[in-house]
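To whoever is on call:

I kicked off a structure prediction for a single chain this morning and the downstream step that reads the tokens threw a length-mismatch warning. I double-checked the sequence; it's 86 residues and nothing unusual in it as far as I can see. Pasting both halves so you can look.
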Amino acid sequence: MRCPRCRADEVLAVARLPHTWTNASGGQVRGLREVLLCARCDAGDPLAGPVVACFARHSRPGPEHAAGLAAALRRWVEGTRPAEGP
């Protein structure tokens, strides 16, 4: 998958988060927003950095990295917020 910000083929994860917005007629609309984790764009982000670093060290993390990678992904998802707008 290509990153929509830098166009690199370096998307490591996609979070689909609940998102609510107000439409033009004032009604609430519920849906999902995707937030992508890009190895290039998000390397310096404090929440995404550990995930990016894991993939940088181990291009294909094995079972021995599962617990650490899962914890890093969980922290990234919990701190992730969708961009504003529909």
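Update from on-call: the warning came from a stale cache, not from the record. Cleared it. Sanity check on the structure: Residues 44 and 52 are 9 Å apart (CA to CA).
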